[in-house]
Design goal:
The chain is mainly beta. Among the domains are: 30-116, Tailspike Protein, Chain; 147-345, Galactose-binding domain-like (Jelly Rolls, Sandwich); 456-544, Elongation Factor Tu (Ef-tu), domain 3 (Beta Barrel). It has a 6-stranded antiparallel beta sheet with strand order 8-11-12-19-14-17. The two termini are 65 Å apart.
């Protein structure tokens, strides 16, 4: 018979403590249970009570007494202890083991047991990973910039993004502040979770002394988040230098939003961080009770804010990493995430993490969800820009359009007064100057793939019909009427084709094309290139697509043809009755006289002079862009 895991070893049914030197029971002795991580703090132990169907665990006295026979008692009955090797009763609470001291009746220590009961996973590490509310907790993702200097931060009084999902607030332009992403040496991170990066705050000039706010923070949509709950916040801090004694602190803020008469924001004090400069990384944590919102008025766009309050009016260099916020009264181990996990889970408070700033989608929805903006051919910008859509949430998209479109035609930029302006030295400079930047135009337009300058596609020639203008290719679907093409010189080209000449395509079928020497002939379906030889194998047609400016828009819904757009044609006169003018020869030139044949003098007018539709079969949907 093989081993059967349903059969288990029976534990001792009675705890009996004996003196290691004599082997006699430790009558009248005691057992004290401490936390292994803090060996002066008592840690509870329990006994099982109740009856079948309604069992419970009741805390016993600590230290526990030993009977005359050396067994544990609750003062009356012999008991079997139950351990709870966790830091708290909260779900996901970290493992916290026991340190146990056994004494005889005189108080002499006889037995010590540590790290009991050695609760570990099969991998050898404590199984204690809980849910961390903090996004981008190790500051690995910085979509806009990895170094925000004073020009971008010290000169503004409004909130500003730094790392993805993190904001910064400073209300004194005189402070010279830089916030940047710093990297740990590869493979040598001193912190749990092996973070590759950390945030560094540096203030090199606090002489103005006018600062009252200096906060790095993160928001969680909906003030309902965690209300009435205990949360524990933790972070790693390294104070490199500071000009005078000052503390950091952590706090929460319940912001009840706008619209109507919402309640005033509630600042929830957390804990202070006291640390000496130059002593390296230190971990700090504290439990913060969050008030219930039952008696409050909640408006629109409410949120809970986690805030790291930095020293006020102090020059300092401070490093921060591994920020955690978990439900309950304890923290689990920091969860180590890959850069890809961080990228998908951040990007400015989005619930749709597979999209990044600048992604576009079509939808039948008429209201943009959190993290998205309806593309309505208007403008975006800072809160003082006068744009249609304003606020720090538009900044990442502002930078994307500024850097990738950068066109006064397709993404015009305006002053805050609404006057047309020009692009400045950088996206940051224009944002700080409160310029409004246009979204790319999409209303009433068909979306199309932009071909970058110089984009080409090569297609092999499979056969040539001499004496005609047919060329067989593997796939002609890449061509459109009027495609400009050239030819490689790998083999011998069919005559009269030349490698350095541009030809224009008329498509005949899915596998055959014809060529013209002019675009007009290709568009009118009158190709004029007749092939006289077959050439040699290994020739290829190179399609050069016309370059499209990224974000550009063209076309019209209705178009009235003008004379210049008509094909060149001839009207042939015909004989008829009525008044006619016939050409005759008179003297040295031509003159006209009355006759029976010629051009009608009173021709009838035809046509309605109405514009024609230029739109292909189309379905209209709303277009949204990711902030």
């Amino acid at each position: 018979m093989s081993l059967d895991p349903r059969y288990v070893i029976a534990p001792s049914l009675q705890e009996i403590f004996v003196d290691p030197s004599t082997g006699l029971p430790l009558a009248g002795g005691s057992v004290t249970f401490y936390s292994d991580v803090n060996r002066s703090t008592l840690k509870p132990v329990y006994e099982l009570s109740g009856t079948y169907g309604s069992y419970s665990y009741t805390q016993i006295q600590n230290p526990a007494l030993l009977s005359g026979g050396g067994t544990l008692t609750d003062g009356t009955n012999d008991i079997l202890p139950y351990y709870f090797p966790y830091a708290s009763m909260a779900q996901g609470a970290p493992v916290e083991l026991y340190y146990i001291v056994v004494k005889d009746s005189t108080g002499a220590i006889k037995i010590i047991r540590q790290a009991y009961p050695n609760l570990i996973t099969s991998g050898g590490a404590a199984s204690n990973f809980g849910y961390d509310f903090v996004r981008n907790a190790q500051f690995s993702k910085w979509s806009t910039s990895t170094d925000f200097k004073a020009v971008g931060l010290g000169s503004v009084t409004l909130n500003d993004f730094i790392a993805d999902d993190w904001y910064y607030l400073n209300d004194d332009a005189g402070q010279v502040i830089e916030i940047s992403q710093q990297a740990f040496p590869v493979g040598a991170s001193p912190l749990p979770g092996n973070p590759p990066y950390y945030l560094q705050y540096s203030n090199t000039n606090a002489s103005s002394g006018a600062q009252t706010q200096n906060i790095i923070y993160q928001n969680y949509s909906g003030v309902q988040t965690l209300n009435g709950e205990n949360v524990t916040v933790g972070l790693q801090v390294n104070l490199e230098s500071i000009s005078a004694t000052s503390n950091l602190s952590v706090q929460l803020v319940q912001n009840f939003g706008g619209g109507g008469t919402p309640s005033t924001p509630i600042v929830i004090p957390g804990f202070n961080i006291v640390i000496s400069p130059g002593t390296g990384w230190h971990f700090f944590q504290g439990t913060i009770p969050i008030p219930s919102i039952l008696s409050t008025v909640v408006g629109t766009n409410s949120f809970l804010s986690l805030q790291i309050v930095l020293p006020i009016n102090k020059t300092a260099v401070i490093d921060i990493c591994n920020v955690q916020m978990q439900q309950g009264t304890s923290l689990s181990n920091i969860v180590e995430k890959s850069i890809d996990d961080v990228s998908r889970g951040t990007n400015y408070q989005t619930q749709y993490s597979d999209f990044v700033t600048g992604d576009v989608k079509t939808t039948i929805n008429t209201v943009a969800p959190t993290g998205w903006l309806l593309m309505d051919d208007t403008e975006i910008g800072s809160a003082s820009s006068g744009a249609t859509h304003v606020g720090i949430g538009t900044k990442a998209l502002y930078f994307a359009i500024w850097n990738n479109i950068h066109s006064a035609v397709y993404a015009p930029i305006y002053t805050s007064a609404g006057a047309i302006s020009t692009y400045g030295a950088s996206a940051e400079a224009d944002w700080e100057a409160n310029k409004a930047l246009s979204l790319t135009r999409v209303l009433g337009r068909v979306l199309a793939g932009a071909a970058p300058s110089g984009y080409t596609l090569t297609t092999a020639i499979t056969s040539v019909s001499t004496g005609s203008n047919y060329i067989a290719v593997g796939d002609a679907t890449s061509f459109y009427v009027g495609s400009a093409v050239t030819f490689t010189t790998t083999g011998t080209l069919p005559s009269p084709l030349l490698a350095a000449t541009t030809y224009y395509v008329t498509t005949v079928s899915g596998t055959h094309i014809q060529l013209s020497t002019t675009l007009t002939q290709a568009l009118t379906g009158t190709p004029n290139v007749t092939l006289t030889t077959t050439g040699s194998p290994d020739n290829f047609i190179v399609i050069t697509y016309p370059a499209h400016v990224f974000g550009s828009f063209f076309g019209e819904e209705l178009h009235l043809d003008i004379t210049a757009e008509m094909p060149v044609h001839t009207h042939v006169p015909s004989a008829g009755n009525g008044q006619f003018m016939a050409a005759t020869t008179s003297g040295a030139g031509n003159s006209f006289s009355s006759g029976t044949n010629g051009i009608g003098a009173n021709a009838l007018t035809a046509g309605g002079n109405t514009a024609h539709n230029t739109i292909q079969t189309t379905t209209y949907l709303n277009v949204m862009i990711k902030l």
